[in-house]
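Ticket #1316: bound-state structure for flavin-adenine dinucleotide.
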Amino acid sequence: MAAKNLKVDIHHITRVEGHGNIVVDVQNGELKQCELTIVETPRFFEAMLRGRPYLEASHITSRICGICAVGHATASLRATERALDIEPTEQTVLLRKLNFHGEILDSHILHAYMLVAPDFLGVGSVIPLAKTAPDVVLRALRMKKLSGDLCKAICGRHTHPIALTVGGFTHYPSNDELVALRERLEAMRPDVDATVELFQKLSMPDFERDTEYIALHKDEEYCFIDGVIASTDGGTWPIKHYRSVTNEQIVEHSSAKHTHNKRDAYMVGALARFNVNYNQLNSKAKAAAIALGIKPKCTNPYMNTVAQVVEIVHCVEDSIALIDKLLARGIRQEEPVPPGRLSGEGVGACDVPRGTLFHNYVIEEGKIVGANCIIPTGQNLANIEADMRGLVPTILDQPQDKVAQALEMLVRAYDPCISCSAHMLDVKFV
Amino acid sequence: MSPKPTVAFFEFTSCEGCQLTVVDSLQDHPELLDAIDIVQFREAMSEKSDSYQIAFIEGSCTRPSDEAKIRAIREKAAIVVALGACAHLGGINAIRNRSDMQEVREYVYGDKANWFPTYEPRPISAIIKVDAVLPGCPIDRNELVKAVTHLLQGRMPQIPDQPMCIECKLKENVCVYTQGKVCLGPITLAGCDAICPTYGDGCEGCRGTISNPNFQSLREVMLEHGVSEEEIESRLTMFMTNQILAMAKAQ
Amino acid sequence: MSFRIMPKAAVPDWITWLRSRYRVVGPRQLKDQFVFDEINSPDELSLDYPTSILPPKKYLLPPTEELFQFTTKGMHTKASLEPRPTVIMGVHTCDMHAIQLLDRVHNTGYADQHYQARRQNTYLVSIECLNPCTEHSFCKDMGTLSVPENFDLHLTDLGDEYGVDIGSEKGEELLRGFASVWDPTEEDYRHVNQVMAEKWPRFSYRFNFDVTELPDLLALSTKSSYWNELGDLCLGCGMCTKVCPTCYCFNVKDEVDLSLTEGHRVRIWDSCQVDEFALVAGGHNFRSTRALRQRHRFFRKGKYQLEAYGLIGCVGCGRCAAACLVHITPVKTFNELYRRHKQGEAVEAQS
Amino acid sequence: MTTLLKETLDSQSIYMPTPARIVDTVELTDLEKVFKLKLPSGFELNHRPGQFVQISVLGIGEAPISICSSPSRSTGGTFEICVRRVGNVTNAMHALKPGALIGVRGPFGRGFPIERFRGKDILFVPGGLGLAPLRSLINEVLDERGKYGRIIILYGSRSPKDLLFQAELKEWQRRADIECHVTVDRPDENWTGNVGVITTLFPKVTIHPRNMVSVVVGPPVMYRYVLMELLGKGIAEGNIWFSFERRMKCGVGKCGHCQMHHIYTCQEGPAFSYAEIKHLEEAL
Ligand SMILES: Cc1cc2nc3c(=O)[nH]c(=O)nc-3n(C[C@H](O)[C@H](O)[C@H](O)COP(=O)(O)OP(=O)(O)OC[C@H]3O[C@@H](n4cnc5c(N)ncnc54)[C@H](O)[C@@H]3O)c2cc1C
Ligand code: SF4
Ligand code: SF4
Ligand code: SF4
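RESOLUTION: The complex was predicted; output attached.
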């Protein structure tokens, strides 16, 4: 490798959620510095929850992130329900899963089409694409609208859900609405196929780096809510032992904490789920994976977007199956399940679009007294930096702007959600 | 037609959900892209120009260093619109203003309490003059499209000074008070089509109040429905913390 | 006009039959309340309902109504005046009185063609109230407990069948060709008389004075301190005016597409209880306090409409009383004004 | 010739405006502009002084505006309005150039009962923009000057640059058969006239109350003070006339906004005598 000096300083990465900077400093071919800096202001959510009635927690924490608001709300509800000994009904579980699929679809479509695809199509955003490839943009908007409408029917709206509440729902979709959604999901299949075709054509940068992949897991289904924590390095942990997996650490250059489990870093998100839970994907999704040339265990982080496309296929099909189940049972106007106790501690976990999310609450007499939230992007930060350290030496021969672009694309592939990762709390429990 | 107005989006402390709602509104109104020229929108695009006529600012100001950035936007833009509750009211971020700032910092950072130069979250209007507001957490898509239409017509977006109950009744929702829930509808600015009561939950006041809210009478209503003083305070300080604190101070 | 009998068992068929010709709307259940809504299948119709959240007025004066469409360039305009022929089923007698008032309002002075068009295309099938619908209604005081003569058909529940009064040519039209109606027998007439006789005592008077005294009582109460008390209590939420069958004030708005070329002008229900109702450019508000706005509302209901249109502006449906979270009700308000008035007289007499 | 009102009534919807063309605009001040409008051929406005029209800018909205030209001078389907730029519709109007179309409905309201003024002395008291509706009446009276007694005009304005219709004002001040006095609240360096609120002009004129009609139009704050002055001079309550501004959405007595107690200002007004409204608390 030629001795070379290189400095990359990307201020506010674009097409990601929240503010982050990339700093790379190579002197005489030696990597001196390689960091992803989180410059988002801390949001103090855990502190804000203190003293609030437990019913408000999911409404407040959904405001951590506008993109995975349903995910935060669901993890929050699960934490509260476990703390207060509430067992949601089967209908609630089904509706929450369907709602969750809506969010996974919405977020993945946004990321794959509007944030990642422009890189491969040589444009700076989806806006010029509207002129050059209107069919692609309109397809993305169409698919996103259906995902949004799916959320809307169940919880009122995707960004900051309304009807999700502790123990159940405050509103139910009608049978007619579900039937209409099912029809639209079926009609969306050609768009899903076209999405697979599009990403078949985009060739992802060639970069492999093996790491530990962590996701929630259930034997019986491709898991997004509850389950156990599972690793490709082997081992499973109950959700309530999440701390022994995440091992949060404060690092100096970032307002978000880093995590590590068996190695120095691990990855969460669509690729991790794909690697951990491949067997649970439905057949259409598996077929799409073959078509897209991705198989477990895939160690190219750029393939995270491709794994998202596989999940799009899975979620569309599973949504149809879930609606069929709900229709067969018929929607019942259930009152939310009341708490079994008013004090306790609970952990809720979900695999949101960007990876595994944990909410942990301590509740006393119906009021939150302690809270901790561990966000996927926070868990990915150490792994992103490890990838950057691995990537930079392999592309040092390229001009600076190419290096910068490759790094930015790498970070973007993780679909980072920086505003939520800036949560910073020395967890205190009473 | 006159050339398209140039529009830029900025965010400070927020969840970026309002900007996502802007992206979402393209689903029903792709023609938005024909009507305006978006020149800066970090969340969704890499292209960037610093020459713009209309600036939409999302998020609240939570640290002294944001102030200069906000002022710079004001200097460049002819029209500044506050986008969403964080920018309009301080939003959910302002919940922490109920506690002493130093205490919050210590709770969060322990002995490193003074590491981060954050201060009490405040609306954008606390820093600069704001020409118009799109309230809500998140903003309402239809209201956004209407606001853009008004800007194209050369007038300021205006939110009618009407309470939520009006919209709620027009939707023939069953009033959530009759279902044992709390609602700030009678004092909250309408415009979201009473979406929370429509989905079975009481209004949380994310859009701020009408010009003459009758807080006193609403408190009585809540007490009558068995809501404790504590829960009342809690509900009133979900989005309106800054207003409630200002009222308490004035007394 | 004539009187017929329809067995209840035939009603579903009748509804289906009507639906093939008209849009049929009527009371249907929503959670534990009722709303007027389109009836898509006969089982959705609940003729035996207490009251509805919004009155059936919404089909004659929709909450948002397009007045005309326009193009901004060239100023081409087209009035929107093609309502769908609609049968409103199950209108209570108070709401029928309200419609009578709305008819007068919109036909007096400048006639409102939009209202007229809808009204002409509307078939009113009213129903006799045999029991007080809610704890809030006071129709007996307001004289709205029996149906005015504006119905097309009027139903009376006779147990297993409905007595059907045909009030108009349009009413005939709703039955023409429908086989399951027949002429009443002597027995049926006796039955009707009996039902009507039994109904009356079930309703009580709730005013402490006679309604004919109401306009004078109000005139004497212009300066009453009670308005200020109401003003302190009132939330200014406007619900009372949204649910009222005799409120018809509106705002007008233009809506255009994003290319600013085409649009329409709509009118939207407005409320005299909101701050900006009487605000003019320059910031002057001609009814600036909640107290004055409450007074205006009650004067309209109890006095102004009577003087302008010969019909009293409140029909005693009780919807506003049920909606108001701070329990401001016409019965309480009018009785309290009466009490204070009497008290004032007594004090005067003493001194 | 069809009158515009008849066209309005006969059209499918009373809420639908008729397109009129802006044939000329004159900027009077920074805020006020006069628009000369022409109705489609074959139409006449046929208004009375004191009446108003509803002016539409399609896509923005509608606003009630008084007709400021007198019937005697509004022929061939043309008439004038004077518009102050204060908000959405009025701003949009100011942006329109001659040749543009604008929507008109009306004329509405009952106007001033000019035949009852015949043979009497008339005291006009316009304040600010109030001169717009009064100009219609003043010019109508001046065009039949012989039918009236003394004509007195007391005009008050914020500052000299806010004075409306300055050419006509000069003409009125010049004419021997008109007593015209002007005052401003805030003079500039060139102002040599009276300074002070409008009531400071009253001492300048003698009034014979028995044969006097007074017409007062201006901002709401002005009415009470002028009224005291006029009553103090002994003018009969039925001979003191006002024009009222209220929020108006329809102009035809339906929308409810302009109600003062039971009275629809758009129908029974906007011109009222003091005798008619003195018992109405919401009027003054
Ligand atoms: C009988 C009458 C005659 C008038 N004559 C004139 C005149 O000759 N010249 C002139 O410049 N102005 C006149 N006005 C006032 C003029 O109508 C208002 O300034 C105008 O309606 C403001 O509309 P906008 O959309 O520009 O203002 P905005 O401030 O944008 O108005 C906001 C809202 O308030 C409503 N609104 C505010 N003020 C009034 C008002 N006074 N009446 C009705 N609606 C109102 C508007 O319709 C609008 O919906 C008159 C008003 C009345 C009632
Ligand atoms: S639910 Fe809330 S907004 Fe709706 S009527 Fe009741 S108080 Fe008003
Ligand atoms: S005022 Fe109240 S009781 Fe009377 S008609 Fe209206 S809603 Fe019914
Ligand atoms: S419903 Fe009650 S609180 Fe609301 S405006 Fe009417 S009187 Fe006031």
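RESOLUTION NOTES: Residues 6-152 of chain B form a domain with the Rossmann fold fold (CATH 3.40.50.700).
TICKET STATUS: resolved
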